[in-house]
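Recap from last week: sequence in, structure out.
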Amino acid sequence: MKNTLTLLVLAISLSLFAQDQEQQSIEYRKELSLEYKSGENKVLTEREKKNFGYLNFYDFDPEFVVVARFEPLANTEELQLETSTTRIASYVKYGYLHFTLKGKKCKLLVLSSPSLKDDPEYYNYLSVYFTDQTNGKGSYKVGRYMDLRSPLSEKVILNFNNTYNPYCAYSKRFSCPIPPVENHLPVKVTAGVQGGFRSFRKF
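Predicted structure tokens:
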């Protein structure tokens, strides 16, 4: 009887957690679409904003909400990333995230930007740039991004339903970092925002 109650409580907890993550993703999608529609992020032209409805996302999938183990890096090794232009972007290797996704062991490098360390709003921003098997076949061909905040604890929740495209997916006016080769996930991440200008739809 005790084991049955324990399993019931666990099932309810997991269900509530999934519902909470889904609601967060719904709010995230609304906020992100509004940034483009309002022109707050200055990505779209006036004409594009008039035709814009909202960003096209994959359906929410709880399988793409995972708990990762964070492995911090003691050194401050710098990494030079190519971008969508000729610019080279400099980052510091912050640590690794280890997790299992769709039955496969995965690892992602987390980066911090030296250029943001003195910014009062973004000083604790961490970047996870990644590619997967959907790039160019459902998602933006270059890859997608995920934001985190430092400091990271040993266990980190990764919600791939909240991943987004870099601005260069929508305008060549922007210079966006290309994900490092080691951040390729050997699965189809059918979660998060889909690709390019085709992701714009009217209501």
